[in-house]
From TrEMBL:
The keyword Signal applies. The gene is flgI. Keywords: Bacterial flagellum, Cell projection, Cilium, Flagellum, Periplasm, Signal. InterPro entries: Flag_FlgI (IPR001782). GO terms for biological process: bacterial-type flagellum-dependent cell motility. Assembles around the rod to form the L-ring and probably protects the motor/basal body from shearing forces during rotation. It is found in: Bacterial flagellum basal body. GO terms for cellular component: bacterial-type flagellum basal body, distal rod, P ring; outer membrane-bounded periplasmic space. One of its GO terms (molecular function) is structural molecule activity. Belongs to the FlgI family. This is Flagellar P-ring protein. The basal body constitutes a major portion of the flagellar organelle and consists of four rings (L,P,S, and M) mounted on a central rod. The lineage of its organism: Bacteria, Pseudomonadati, Pseudomonadota, Alphaproteobacteria, Rhodobacterales.
Length: 365
């Protein structure tokens, strides 16, 4: 029996909390970040779905520049092909990307091209915010949709004017950042919270059995790399990022009015309040009557107005009382018992928030 108790005591500290999440999924490491790239290029090989050069003169300009760089003189020539389209090319350069590695790119038409399906992106330099070229993109565009049209009808599904090129860009320049020279590193919480930051500080210090982390504010925890006694900064990060921490989040209700979607956190609470829901319809109809004199009789045609007005009220739902500190499951069960639709539920939640009984951040999209 004593041996069993001893084993339980030894195992309990290693048991993670029920809602524990890896630190790498809660924070961003200072300096370990990607960089956005953008370029302006040309997609060729389209099946008559390219830009109309009269409406997109910049397409003709870039096409002329590319041909001249290839030794083709097109000065004074009028170019009217329909198989080319000007595009913006965007990509994200991942952290520590090395020269020769490949990254995905997104291609989007900027002219009046109808589809990029089947097109090929010509060699396009990709610049970062500093104006330097960090990658070069080229390859076959995989469009996200399809478009077809005839003489009297057309159909479009998805977005054929945008597409991707998997591994379509090759890195030509590296970001000048030496991780090994860092002596301090900040962990930036993706959802700032003082309680979560305090738990991260305690978990990291417990992992290294010494004071390594210090909470600076609700969104920042600073790590002393030297205090970790790791072989390098990368070794310290690899050990820190897998530490399990149970985050604390704000109570939040998010609603999407367009789709009627409602998402509520488990810690949403509602004070005691009464809820009733119903619909009132006001209807007014005009049905004028035309009165004419008898044939060959003296008189004048007159329009006599006639209005029909009425008010219709649906039975709606009965008045229901929501008890004090009701949980999420109880709120959903209660609203479903009232027989309300998702859109009506959004209106009810707005009214409860306006009454001061909904204790959560209310986000409307």
């Amino acid at each position: 029996m004593r041996l069993l108790l001893l084993l339980l005591v030894l195992l309990l500290p290693g048991i993670a909390p029920a809602g524990a999440i890896r630190l790498k999924d809660l924070v961003d490491f200072d300096g370990v970040r990607g960089n956005d790239l953008i370029g302006y290029g040309l997609v060729v090989g389209l099946n008559g779905t390219g830009d109309g050069l009269r409406n997109a003169p910049f397409t003709e300009e870039i096409m002329s520049n590319i041909l001249e760089r290839l030794g083709v003189n097109v000065a004074g020539e009028e170019l009217r092909p329909k198989n080319v389209a000007a595009v913006f090319v965007t990509a994200s350069l991942p952290p520590f990307a090395r020269v020769g590695s490949q990254i995905d790119v997104t291609v989007s038409a900027i002219g009046d091209s109808k589809s990029l399906l089947g097109g090929t992106l010509i060699m396009t330099p990709l610049n970062a915010a500093d104006g330097q070229i960090y990658a070069v993109a080229q390859g076959t565009v995989l469009a996200d949709g399809v478009a077809a049209e005839g003489d009297a009808a057309s159909v479009v599904r998805g977005a054929p004017t945008a597409g991707v090129i998997p591994a379509g860009a090759r890195v030509e320049r590296e970001i000048d950042f030496d991780l090994g020279t860092l002596t301090q590193m900040r962990l930036a919480l993706r959802e700032p919270d003082f309680t979560t930051a305090n738990r991260i500080e305690a978990a990291v210090n417990r992992e290294f059995n010494r004071r390594v982390a210090v909470m600076r504010d609700s969104g920042t925890v600073q790590i002393d790399i030297a205090a970790t006694q790791a072989h390098s900064t990368a070794h310290a990060i690899s050990r820190i990022e897998n530490i399990l921490v149970e985050p604390e989040r704000k109570a939040r209700v998010v609603v999407d009015q367009r789709s009627g979607t409602i998402v509520m956190g488990d810690d949403v609470r509602i004070s005691r309040v009464a809820v009733s829901q119903g619909n009132l319809t006001l209807r007014v109809e005009e049905a004028p009557i035309v009165v004419q004199p008898n044939p060959f009789a003296e008189g004048q045609t007159v329009v006599v107005p006639r209005t029909v007005a009425g008010i219709e009220e649906d039975p709606g739902t009965r008045l229901a009382e929501v008890p004090e500190t009701t949980t999420l499951s109880e709120v959903v069960a209660g609203l479903n018992a009232l027989g309300v639709s998702p859109r009506d539920m959004i209106d009810i939640l707005k009214t409860i928030k306006a009454a001061g009984a909904l204790h959560a951040e209310f986000v409307v999209q």
